[in-house]
Write a structure and sequence with these properties.
This protein is an alpha+beta fold and about 525 residues long. It has three domains: about 150 residues, OB fold (Dihydrolipoamide Acetyltransferase, E2P), CATH 2.40.50; about 70 residues, no CATH class; about 220 residues, Chloramphenicol acetyltransferase-like domain (Chloramphenicol Acetyltransferase, 2-Layer Sandwich), CATH 3.30.559.10. Helices cover about 30% and strands about 20% of the residues. The chain contains 13 helices and 21 strands. A hairpin with a 4-residue loop joins β6 and β7.
């Protein structure tokens, strides 16, 4: 009982402090109206911790709501500007304390826990599970007293922007533009695509608006237009010209189609399609690939590497209980090559318009998951043994596939390696991952027949038919693979690219260098 009284007193003191801040903020109404983001959107603190400002909106004061705190959607990674609230871990009326996990948030690369930084009762959840949210938008309301929770049932942030959750009918909060216009008509026979249907659900639209897409399909633009104009007087003003034109076009199209059907025309409706929602990760990948291909001058160079000695080394290690993959060997060879050719371990700095050397040899390895491509980092790869690199890759790949990578495990890196050999791809060209200077595309091993190069012991690798007297000239079967370097032409020139690939080839074809150096 004593602990409960102390906790209640603490919440009351916190409530008084927030009210004092509200009074202080009221004197800044003019400046805050010029910079709305400073109050209503908030921001994020370094390290992914939620930085939010407690405030009571003017709309809430007019409605006489108790003191409360609005929690803004946090930035949980350095590159995050928006994310998906995968699921709430709290419910309305629940008491939360600092450190409690409020929700699971999908960033551009992983799903992370959003930890609470204050205490109070959950009074309102402003977004639903699975909603896409911009960083800084208010998503949750906390109040100080449990008996005040019910007063926030119809709560909505004052001045909320388009895209905020629609209020429930009859809550007394007006929406839409200030100018009256004709509400958007609907047609029960219209087809609504999945993307438009999801958008309607997010905005609380009960009826489909007029469709202006092919054959009257309701598009996302139709839904957004309906959201913008809903809530206006149905009897005020004429129908907007855009709506009238769209309605006429759709009506004309349908009349033509119906006439054709009546005449017995067998018109091909075309194949059905399904809109696949784009995850935040896919959006980030698309944006970065477009940025890379349009702003980075790519240069390419390839080299063939013999694998026979590496394959024999793998068998020897496997017999001793140590398993390593060819990709582990490639990562080790690349790390050593970056150390041997420092000019290749660099990146282009846009701010200074100059080449900057990378402070460490951190090699990223591409890992494919259902949500997209991760590039976790093997840090200080040049100082790690082959077995250590193999262990790091397995650990990072497992975390990537479970969507549990931390930002520091995938943000950064000085060079990347992408391997498609397991899919039977012999060679390909990868896209540079900015701001890195290069990426190595690794193809699969293949059997080839070549002329044996005599070295006094009959050559290596194959079972050819030469005489083994050191004179060469015989044929042998060897295993080789092709690796292709894609490099930023502002960082690499032809000499740097050639020296780097020569070092990779030298390291891969000499297992002693891989296992000892």
């Amino acid at each position: 009982m004593q602990a409960q009284l102390v906790s209640r007193k603490v919440r009351q003191v916190a409530s008084l402090a927030r009210q004092l801040r509200v009074v202080s903020d009221a004197s800044l109404d003019v400046s805050s109206s010029q910079q709305p983001d400073a109050v209503s959107r908030g921001g994020s603190a370094p390290g992914g911790r939620c930085h939010r400002r407690s405030f009571q909106s003017s709309g809430a004061r007019e409605e006489g709501l108790p003191a409360h705190t609005v929690l803004n959607f946090p930035s949980l990674s350095p590159t995050m500007s928006s994310g998906t609230l995968v699921s709430w871990n709290v419910k309305i009326g629940q008491l939360v304390a600092p450190g409690d996990v409020l929700a699971e948030v999908e960033t551009d690369k992983a799903t992370l826990a959003w930890e609470n930084q204050d205490d109070g009762y959950v009074a309102k959840l402003l977004v639903e599970d699975g909603a896409g949210v911009e960083v800084g938008r208010g998503v949750c309301v906390l109040c100080d007293e449990e008996e005040d929770v019910g007063k926030f049932e119809g709560f909505r942030l004052a001045g909320s922007v388009e895209g905020s959750p629609a209020p429930a009918a009859g809550n007394g909060v007006a929406t839409g533009s200030s100018q009256p216009s004709q509400p958007i008509p609907s047609d029960g026979l219209q087809r609504v695509g999945p993307a438009a249907r999801n958008l309607m659900a997010a905005h609380g639209l009960q009826h489909a608006p007029l469709g202006t897409g092919p054959r009257g399909v309701v598009t996302k633009e139709d839904v957004l237009f309906a959201v913008e104009h809903r809530g206006n007087d149905a009897d005020g003003g004429d129908t907007p010209p855009a709506v009238a034109a769209a309605a006429a076009a759709v009506a004309d199209t349908r009349a033509t189609r119906d006439a054709g059907d009546a005449m017995g025309e067998d018109e091909d409706e075309g194949p059905e399609y399904v809109d696949i929602p784009t995850t935040n990760m896919r959006k980030v990948i698309a944006r970065r690939l477009l940025e890379s291909k349009t702003t980075v001058p790519h240069m390419y160079a390839s080299v063939d590497i013999l694998l026979d000695d590496v394959l024999r080394m793998r068998k020897t290690l496997a017999a001793a209980g140590t398993k390593v993959s060819v990709n582990d060997c490639v990562l080790r060879a690349v790390a050593l090559a970056l150390s041997e050719v420092p000019a290749a371990n660099a990146f282009w700095d846009d701010s200074s318009q100059s080449i900057k050397p990378s402070p460490a040899v951190d090699v990223c390895v591409a890992v494919a998951t259902e949500g997209g491509l991760f590039t976790p980092i093997v840090k200080d790869a040049n100082n790690k043994s082959l077995s250590q690199i193999s262990a790091d890759v397995r650990r990072l790949a497992t975390k990537a596939k479970e969507n549990k990578l931390l930002p520091e495990e995938y943000v950064g890196g000085s060079f990347s390696v992408s391997n498609l050999g397991m899919f039977g791809v012999e060679k390909f060209s990868a896209i540079v991952n900015p701001p890195q200077g290069g990426i190595l595309a690794v193809g699969g091993g293949r059997q080839v027949v070549r002329v044996r190069v005599g070295d006094g012991d009959g050559g290596g690798g194959g079972d050819g038919d030469g005489d083994g007297d050191g004179s060469g000239g015989g044929l042998e079967t060897v295993t080789e693979m092709t690796v292709t370097l894609s490099a930023d032409g502002r960082v690499y020139d032809g000499e740097t690219a050639g020296a780097f690939l020569a070092a990779v080839k030298r390291n891969m074809e000499d297992p002693i260098r891989l296992s000892i150096m």
